[in-house]
Amino acid sequence: MKLVAKELRTTVPSKAELAKIKRREIYFILDNILDTYNVGGIFRLADAIGVKKIYLCGVTETPPNPRIKKASINTTEWVAWSYAPTAVEAIHELKSQNSKVKIIAVEQDSKSIPYTKIDYQLPLAFVVGNETTGCSKETLEMCDAIAEIPMFGVNTSLNVIISLGIVSYHAVKNL
To answer: 126 near 149, Cβ under 8 Å?
Structure first.
């Protein structure tokens, strides 16, 4: 079922329609994301890619929230999510369920490597951090890799949704 944004805001797919969606062993972990519109946009991205679950961590606002609902165009209703007090706890929970999950932060860091140089294999989790301070040091220490997107202009960073979208679509393309 393909719906336009207006239809998505008022429609929830049936269980049969949702069962047809291919959910990949991909997870998003949001480490203290402050902007509710970023959270909603990440739900849309997760739906588009077929992410299995989103972990909302720390001060990240959770549904139900009218701004998240608006930005997500209702995808919060069918993309699985849960809350964890910290991204570290979310990673522990995910690793306890599947020890083979590869954790990749999308972040600028002295240990980061170009996102195109990472070997993406399922199961896979992407961690994105706070819009100002990034991922916590403790979170980065738990990651198997830190992916960075090269910047060629004056600006030194991209919006969290854009960064996650670039890296996650690159990973899905290569699976």
So the answer is: no
Which H, E and C letters describe 111-129, residue by residue?
Answer: CCEEHHHCCCCCCEEEEEE
16 burial (CB, 10 Å; 0-12 / 13-18 / 19+) is exposed
**pLDDT digit string (tens) for 129-172?**
999 999 999 999 999 999 999 999 998 889 999 999 999 999 99
* Paired strand residues for 30: 56, 128
Q: What is the pTM of this model?
A: 0.93
Segment 25-59, tens digit of pLDDT? 999 999 999 999 999 999 999 999 999 999 999 99
What is the distance between the alpha carbons of residues 130 and 83, in angstroms, rounded to a whole number? 16
For residues 19 and 47, is the Cβ–Cβ distance under 8 A?
A: no
The Cα–Cα gap between 142 and 91 comes to 8
**Please, what are the domains in the chain?**
20-173 (3.40.1280.10)
Q: Which of 98, 97, 90 is nearest to 142 (CA)?
A: 90
